[in-house]
Amino acid sequence: MSVATAALARTPFTGNATTGELTHWRAVATEVAQSLAVDALERDRKNEQPHAEAQLLRSSGLLDLLVPAEFGGAGGHFETAFEAIRILANADGSIAQLLAYHYFNQTGIAFYAPAKQQGAWWERTVAHGWLWGDSVNPVDPTLLLTVEADGYRLNGAKRFSTGSGVGEVIIVNALVQGGENDGKVLAFVLPTDREGLELVDDWDYLGQRLSASNSVRYSNVRVDAAEILGEVTEEPVSTLLIPGLQLAFANFYLGIAEGALARGKQLLLGRKNAWFLSTAPTYSRDVIFQRTLGELKARTAAVAALVEKLGRAYDLLIAKAGDVTAEERAELAVAIAEAKIVSTETGVEVANRIFEVTGTSSTSNDVGLDLYWRNVRTHSLHDPVDYKKIEVGQYFLHGEAQPISLYT
């Protein structure tokens, strides 16, 4: 029952997205976003588990975008997935988060499982239409796996388990006690209806209300040996999962900023008069408001250029699989940390300052402009951006990377 720790010989991801691939999935994501936009505010206020939204993602094909074509998926690239996340965030940051976490939970197959075992996992996720949640929050006490015949028993609890409320399966990390894997952290997959696994519907926060990020409790949950993906190690290619997830964050912060700008523009153009001290005929013709929007738009465009570049770079490095070096991994992780910094600050600033051009009337509860700020403000606290700044500064000054963790 020992878990192999050999380097991954390959990943199923190769090359970069074609123009055709990007065009197709942009159209799919845009259609989904338009559907989400219709009642985003109403759904946010209800604060219910997003089962209908999960089904929308499933029926659109977005859940299987990254599954290799040889196993029944779309055979897409991370660059395309990042863009889909960004487009959805224009309309609904919660569902963009749900999709982002799904992608990196699902592709844990490639990051953790031995190559010869990956095909069966990919085929199962397609056949059953799985949405993948997670239960790996590292700031909670460690989950414990206790050895028993042909498997384990899992005990403990995790908060902030994104997607667990609506996912068919969740990926879990836990520390093994006893046996030949004693002291190892294993990644494994559990169905959310497993006996002893309790989904606690306690996600009631300022924003990202529909990300299904509730708590999960485990009471002597059976974990079969066949449900183990592999060991969580510091092998360079397997540890690229976390920078990839951080880049997904940058994309949905960017998408929220773009959504706030679009909604702000709509509201500003709808204002028919002007401030009484202005000589402009309308608010939208007032250079003060034009200047503010110009500044916010330019900053958002700069973030977009950076994350698009990094999406392509991520695909290229993932394709090297076991040949990825620690130095290459560190360089890309720091570049993604830079994107995390500017996307966080730009997203929060845009979602906040958009009110400067839309006026008091835009704070009405039925307008819902606050949804963008509440969403980006909530998730941008996931890990302190100041530590990302330190990570970048340390690498720039000394060429020293931060220790590998579930945040770096």
Give the radius of gyration: 22 Å
Q: Which outline best applies?
A: globular
* Strand residues, percent: 5-15%
Low-confidence spans: none
CATH architecture of the largest domain: Up-down Bundle
Largest sheet properties: 8 strands, mixed
Number of separate helices:
13
Query: What is the CATH top level name of the largest domain?
Result: Mainly Alpha
CATH topology of the largest domain: Butyryl-CoA Dehydrogenase, subunit A, domain 3
Provide the residue-averaged pLDDT: 94
Keywords:
408 residues, Butyryl-CoA Dehydrogenase, subunit A, domain 3, eight-stranded mixed sheet, 3 domains, Butyryl-CoA Dehydrogenase, subunit A, domain 2, alpha+beta, Butyryl-Coa Dehydrogenase, subunit A, domain 1
Secondary-structure blueprint of this entry?
Layout: H1 19-38, H2 40-46, H3 51-60, H4 78-91, H5 93-106, H6 108-112, H7 115-128, E1 132-135, E2 144-148, E3 151-158, E4 169-177, E5 185-191, E6 197-200, E7 215-224, E8 228-231, H8 241-269, H9 287-318, H10 326-353, H11 355-358, H12 370-379, H13 385-398
Parallel strand pairs: 1-4, 2-4
Antiparallel strand pairs: 2-3, 3-7, 4-5, 5-8, 6-7
Helix pairs in contact: 1-3, 1-4, 4-5, 4-8, 4-9, 5-8, 8-9, 8-10, 8-12, 9-10, 10-12, 10-13
Describe this entry's structure for a reader.
With about 400 residues, the chain is of the alpha+beta class. The protein folds into 3 domains: about 20-130, Butyryl-Coa Dehydrogenase, subunit A, domain 1 (Orthogonal Bundle); about 135-230, Beta Barrel (Butyryl-CoA Dehydrogenase, subunit A, domain 2); about 240-400, Butyryl-CoA Dehydrogenase, subunit A, domain 3. It is built from 13 helices and 8 strands. Strands 1, 2, 3, 4, 5, 6, 7 and 8 form an 8-stranded mixed sheet that branches. A hairpin with a 7-residue loop joins β4 (about 170-175) and β5. α4 runs antiparallel to α5 (about 95-105), α4 (about 80-90) runs antiparallel to α9 and α10 (about 325-355) runs antiparallel to α12. It is globular. One of its GO terms (molecular function) is monooxygenase activity. InterPro entries: Acyl-CoA_DH_C, Acyl-CoA_Oxase/DH_mid-dom_sf, AcylCo_DH-like_C, AcylCoA_DH/ox_N, AcylCoA_DH/ox_N_sf, AcylCoA_DH/oxidase_NM_dom_sf. Keywords: Monooxygenase, Oxidoreductase.
